[in-house]
């Protein structure tokens, strides 16, 4: 079994740093890249933190955890990394054994032989995926997206979040508002409806301030945020404020603005989504929507345990609220 010492050796950092990162010590001053490297190495070594003392149970639950993103994709956009760490931490605290799968892992096809008590699927899965999961276990929770109302799920209230951002920018005097987001797909290249983009269109249309040319989409990565912002800056009379589909995209976009000499927020305001740790350390610090990603993972475990302990036949859908964190990257129109 991997130890803190093993992780420290691989990451070339002190034992104390590894311990404080894994225990989410907010007072620790360490580079974001170092923190992500420690978390990735811990995952590769299948490190299991020491379990809190709990009342011993006669039976140890075995839960399947299916990841939609690969490890490489998690590093580019840490949204799902945070969700699954929430699942893993909660399972560790409650003495639940986890069997991990990635969607494209061939080992996933043999999951039915694992004798799982339940399964949590993190990411965007199609209806056919859900039907496959149901052949492996009748206890299933979907996290972040659900193609059916017949399965327990944990989702985010992105509609209300987008309205909060738009109200914030409109109150600051902005009328020309752009959206740089992403499109995601499930099996057979079926594009998923993005509630943020839909709400952006509907809300601004009510006030006759929607400009179709002010929407750019790609992937939810810093690289695409950078590229798409460079495209947006080619407009002669472009947006005075941008809403980004993720903090990672916002980081790339702010780099593009800096290279063009565009000052944030004096000339252009920028708002992100997710509130990844790096967002508060940017210059200027990023106004963003805080999505409670680790709590999503915890809530998914609670929902699965509720299934196991009850005899209910009706699925539950838990919709989690968000919080608008106003920092330095959004300001009044000048």
UniProtKB/TrEMBL annotation:
Name this protein carries in UniProt: LacI family DNA-binding transcriptional regulator
GO MF term set: DNA-binding transcription factor activity; transcription cis-regulatory region binding
Keyword DNA-binding: yes
Top-level division of the source organism's lineage: Bacteria
Keywords: DNA-binding, Transcription, Transcription regulation
Organism: Jeotgalibacillus salarius
Lineage: Bacteria, Bacillati, Bacillota, Bacilli, Bacillales
Parts forming coiled coils: none
Keyword DNA-binding: yes
Domain HTH lacI-type as annotated: residue spans: 2-58
Pfam family membership, one: LacI
Record field: transmembrane: none
